[in-house]
Every structure is written in C-alpha cells, then in structure tokens.
Write a structure and sequence with these properties.
Blueprint (H helix, E strand, L loop, with lengths): L2 E6 L2 E7 L4 E5 L6 E2 L10 E6 L2 E6 L6 E3 L2 E3 L1 E3 L5 E4 L2 E6 L72 E5 L8 E3 L4 E6 L3 E8 L2 E8 L5 E2 L2 E2 L5 E2 L4 E5 L2 E7 L1
Parallel strand pairs: 3-4
Antiparallel strand pairs: 1-2, 1-11, 3-5, 5-6, 6-9, 7-8, 7-10, 10-11, 12-13, 12-21, 14-15, 15-16, 16-19, 17-18, 17-20, 20-21
Length: 249
C-alpha cells in the first residue's frame, strides 16, 4: 500500500496511508491531510490513487507544489518522490509491485485527429470440440453373459463465463466514429491541462475517475463526484469537450 511520510526540517511528523482514491491536502480542516501553515493554501493539492498508481495535482495553490524541487501542475508519483509544500515535505513510498508491469499504464490519450488507435479485430471463434472421444473403452461383460447396462453419459462441465470486454466509441470531434478497446487495467483519457479522467478495469467491471481539471466529466449528463463511478453498458461520457459512449463488446 502506498503511503506518505510528512516531515518538517528533517523531523518526521506523521505517516499517512493512501487508502482513499482521492486524498486532499490543504490548510482547511476538511482536507484528508491538513497542514495548518500560511504557506499552504486552503485546498492546495490532491492525490488520486488508482490500483497501485498515484497522481498528484496542484489545485491552483498560491505558492505552488514542488516534486523533487521542480514545480508541477500534475505529476505521476514514483517511489521516493518528495512533495514540497512550503517548509513541509511529503515523501511518497510505494512498495507494492505493479500487477502487470509498466505496460499496464497507458499514456494520456490526447483526442486529436489521427491519434485514436483502430479497434482490434474480433478474435476468431474456437474450433468446435468433438462430441465423442476417438477411443471408447468398452465395459467388461457381466457374469453369466448378460449385457452390461449402458453407462450414463457424464454431465458436461459448466463453461466459465468469459470476461466482458469494454470499449469506448467517440461520438463527436475529428475522431468521431473511432473506437478504443479497453484492454489495459488503466486507461487515461482527455486533454492534459484541460480535463483528464481514468477508466480502470476491475473484477466487478469498469470505473471512471476524475483526475485533472476544474470541472468534472459528465456521465449521462450528470457530473461525477470525487469518487470512482461504475460504468454501465451504453453510458454516455462527456470529457474535455468530446462525447463518447462506453459499451461492452
């Protein structure tokens, strides 16, 4: 599990586990991590944690947010990164291994002409299995020459339910009509600096979470909140000025 080590002038003040999908940092009491210092804005920054990844976003703070000494607006946190808020420092620790490696994180997809990948062709259907085995073992004759009773056919094993494959089709803009199959555990959509959201694939389905931007994406005309929102078949998403439809293939 990822965590933050809060310190000031080399003195460790507390340890905070990133158990929520959205962890706010600021001077006001309602923040998850409250730092009561005038150098810290009322709502200074937020950390969005999805699976084993965490994103840091500055919320337009007065004095800004530094990571490893560099000012940032949005940053994909790496282990041992040091977040600086005035005199306070938050060291990011994440010892959890990534389930599917770095390839499981898709780069932010900017919705521009020609940038959308084409939909993957449907997989070929598996060949039909033979109903009977090539070799049938005959039962031994019963005592006295009586014909043995035919064996009852074995009940077929129940087929495992295949995992449902999600996809998104763009409905507006220069890429209208193009389709993106959600094959990764985490897919990032939007326009950096404007509005960004991530769609995660979980055992119970697909979820969309707001990551960056002053306004939240819309799902079926309703604005999301700070928490992950489950996606249903044929949900309509509006993100960064683009309309798209989520559906199961």
């Amino acid at each position: 599990m990822a965590k933050l080590i809060l310190s000031m002038d080399g003195l460790v003040l507390k340890e905070i586990s990133l158990t929520k999908e959205r962890t706010t940092i600021g001077r006001k009491p309602h923040n998850d991590i409250q730092i009561d210092n005038l150098a810290v804005s009322g709502e200074h920054a937020v950390i969005v944690t999805i699976l084993n990844d965490s994103f840091l976003e500055d919320l337009g703070s007065t004095n800004g947010t530094l990571v490893n000494g560099q000012p940032i607006k949005k940053h994909f946190l790496q282990p041992n990164d040091v977040i600086e808020l005035g005199k306070y420092k938050l060291k990011y620790i994440n010892e959890a291994p990534k389930a599917a490696g770095a390839a499981d994180f898709e780069k932010t997809m900017v919705l521009r002409p020609g940038q959308m990948p084409k939909a993957a062709p449907p997989a070929a259907a598996p060949a039909a299995l033979k109903a009977d085995s090539d070799v049938t073992q005959k039962p031994a004759p019963a005592p006295g020459g009586a014909a043995p009773a035919p064996a009852a056919p074995a009940a077929p094993a129940p087929a495992a339910a295949p995992a449902r494959q999600g996809a998104i089709q763009l409905l507006s803009g220069a890429n209208a009509g193009k389709e993106l199959v959600l094959v990764k555990a985490l897919t990032t959509l939007g326009k950096p600096g404007v509005q960004v959201a991530v769609i995660t694939r979980r055992p119970q389905g697909f979820f969309i979470t707001h990551v960056e931007g002053a306004t939240f994406p819309l799902v079926n005309g309703k604005a999301l909140d700070a928490q992950a929102h489950p996606l249903n078949d044929h949900d309509m998403i509006e993100l960064a000025g683009t309309k798209m439809e989520f559906f199961y293939k």
